[in-house]
Amino acid sequence: MKKRLFSGIQPTGEVHIGNYLGAIKNWASLLDSYECIFSIVDYHAITVPQDPKAMPQQILHVATVNIAAGLDPKRSIIFLQSQVPEHTELAWIFHTLTPLGHLERMTQFKDKARQHRENINAGLFSYPILQAADILLYKAEVVPVGEDQVQHIELAREITRKFNARYGNLFPEPQELLSTAPRIMGLDGKTKMSKSLNNYISLTESPEDIWKKLSVAVTDENRKKRSDPGNPENCNVYSLHKHFSSPEEIDWSANGCRTAGIGCLECKKCLSDNIVRELKPIREKALALFEDPAYVVEVLKSGAERCQEMARQTMREVKEAIGLRVSAKRR
Ligand code: TRP
Question: Which one of 3.30.70.1710, 3.30.450.20, 1.10.240.10, 3.40.50.1110 gives the CATH number of domain 207-287?
């Protein structure tokens, strides 16, 4: 029996090579080893302000690009969180088991509260409880996430232990599966690649735009002139080579940089060609799927149906364990 795996994807716009290298590519390689469930977590997304007019498009875009990049709906389940209401139902029960103090310690909450001072809502605070419900609703044991989510998975384990201790063993303790890809820096070379900072290359970027963005990407800032030798370890273009280029090209880039044998533009051109080549099939598939939104809507719908069946079963067990199922039968 394969173990069940669950992960969540925020529907917040463009999907970029940071998401691809840090998550999607790794997930795609797990499809046959685990029973995989991926959720577009729209209820998490609305804990920060979203534009209701843009949301449906964003959800479909993110679902489409993830499918194009390797989340094959034939070998996994992909669904929209809000289409399975049991997520919020179980989250409520978990609220009653979660100490406030633990939520206050969450670094993601502290960061987001700082970024959205005008809207520090209760949902932002209890976000990790909903995340625990996502995972445990399906009794998933494996959760592939980045470093920044480990604290949330620890809280999910804690909620599991509390539930099991109080109401009987119902849930397995979920484990994080950390991606081996280091955090992908943005083209500014300073901060994590992210949509909001506009320092990214999206998975559906045209070859021209990939080159346009790369040609102005920040390299080793001590290499001011073509004749200055540089340090590849301080260069984000070099670190991207490590993900997209052949071992020979990676050596060529490092040596050429150290000896000033090649210029940054030459180095970037090679990287650009390699990124274009790797993204080509993803882009083609995504562009084709953009023309067929009905297919993606159907994938989400049938995913939600399969999930809801499992979710209903778990909720029956949960209510039974808590003593919330009444019946007219005399005991
Ligand atoms: N919080 C996760 C993130 O920001 C997304 C997420 C929601 C998630 N529910 C989840 C990840 C359940 C793993 C499991 O990336």
Answer: 1.10.240.10
Q: Which atom of ligand 1 is nearest to the CA of 127?
A: 1
The mean pLDDT value of the chain amounts to 96
Quote the distance between the C-alpha of residue 155 and its chain's center.
18
Is 112 tagged catalytic?
yes
Active-site option among 74, 162, 192, 224: 192
Any idea which of 105-119, 134-148, 267-281 has the lowest mean pLDDT? 105-119
Q: At what angle do helices 122-136 and 86-95 cross, to 10 degrees?
A: 110
Tell me the C-alpha distance between 154 and 206, whole Å: 40
Tell me the three state secondary structure of residue 142.
strand
- Half-sphere exposure of 49 toward its Cβ, with a 13 Å CA cutoff? 8
As given in the structure block, the two tokens for residue 237 are 């273009």
Give the global pTM: 0.94
